[in-house]
Amino acid sequence: MKKLLSLPKNRKLSLVFLFLIMVVLYLLVFGYSGEFVNSEAQRIEYTDEAMVDGADFSIFVNLLIFGANGIISVFFFFIMFAVILIMVFLSLLFLLPWRFIAIRKNSVISETEYKTAKLMTIVFIIASAVTALIASHFTSLLYIVFLVAVPSVFLLLFVVSPLKEAYLKNSEPVSL
Q1: How far apart are CA 142 and CA 49, in angstroms?
Q2: What is the structure's pLDDT at 175?
Q3: Segment 136-150 mean pLDDT
């Protein structure tokens, strides 16, 4: 904790903004996973008896119900895909500016800052995965995996990896 407090003001501020971005991304993952399960449409139930003028049309009615349930499934697949694209967009919207503002060519990254960002990312991944699974009642697992993976991958690409590179660049001994 002392090392974290001894960081320069701009580096502390960058970690605070990173934390706030992670909180927003966490809330988005939690919200999207919980609301998707709560908003799933009820499927139309099949019928055993569809009588028209004494004739049994249940086979034709069940065929129409089967088609309607298929359309509902396709509709929800597109909604899941759209939400994943929204998460891609929002992750990029938050993390790209942070990356280019917080990590420049002349930025001096300390080991403390790199390890703190790495730990924050690990905590984000675990917390968002666990709470998304709980919010979704352990259903739609593939959707939850993608929903958690999108911001996690972008955090690794735009935060942890550049911080590691900048830290290693600064910690290499200069040879004459």
Answers
A1: 36
A2: 54
A3: 88
Spatial contact of 140 and 37, defined as CB atoms under 8 Å apart? yes
Cα dist from 13 to 8, 96, 132, whole Å: 9, 16, 29
The mean pLDDT of 46-55, rounded to a whole number, is: 76
What is the Cα–Cα distance from 85 to 28, expressed in whole angstroms? 13
Name the residue among 122, 120, 43 with its Cα closest to residue 76.
Answer: 43
Q: Count Cβ atoms below 10 Å from residue 162 Cβ, excluding itself.
A: 18
Contact by Cβ (8 Å): 152, 125? yes
Report pTM: 0.82
Can you tell me the distance from the alpha carbon of 139 to that of 134, in angstroms, rounded to the nearest whole number? 9
10-31 per-position pLDDT tens digit? 888 999 999 999 999 999 999 8
Give Cα separations from 149 to 87, 88, 126, 128, 145 (angstroms): 10, 10, 11, 10, 6
Q: How far apart are CA 9 and CA 93, in angstroms?
A: 24
Query: 114-132 burial by CB neighbour count: b if 16+ within 10 A, else e?
Result: bebbbebbeebbeebbebb
Sign of CA dihedral 118, 124, 129, 130: positive
Q: What is the pLDDT of residue 172?
A: 65
